[in-house]
Write a structure and sequence with these properties.
The protein has 110 residues and is mostly helical. It has five helices and no strands. The protein is elongated.
């Protein structure tokens, strides 16, 4: 009985963390309801999250589920012809960095 309660509690907490993380992702764009997932800024940020997770030198330390909080955006990114035409990932990341370097603080209340 206790293990079922614990399992339910953990599942609820993970759901809350996922929801809050997704909210944080879209906050800089005015919220998820106020921006298209095909917006290039949204796709750049999803790509940056993915790259930050999966380009780690220590593969065993990767946060395997982190970027998948925005899986719907990653799917759009994968299918997008605009993104695949760009010759380097560095171009995306540099442009994203340049546009957002003045706002580096993220406020999170879990």
């Amino acid at each position: 009985m206790k293990s079922l309660k614990l399992k339910k509690m953990v599942k609820e907490k993970i759901g809350m963390i996922q929801k809050q993380t997704r909210k944080i992702f879209f906050d800089e764009f005015g919220g998820e309801l106020n921006v298209q997932k095909t917006d290039i800024g949204v796709m750049w940020k999803a790509l940056a999250w993915y790259q930050a997770t999966y380009t780690s030198e220590d593969t065993f330390q990767s946060i395997l589920s982190f970027p998948w909080i925005v899986a719907d955006v990653l799917v759009i990114l994968k299918k997008s012809t605009n993104v695949t035409r760009v010759s380097t990932l560095g171009l995306f990341l540099q442009k994203y960095y340049n546009e957002h370097k003045t706002n580096r603080t993220v406020k999170c209340q879990l």
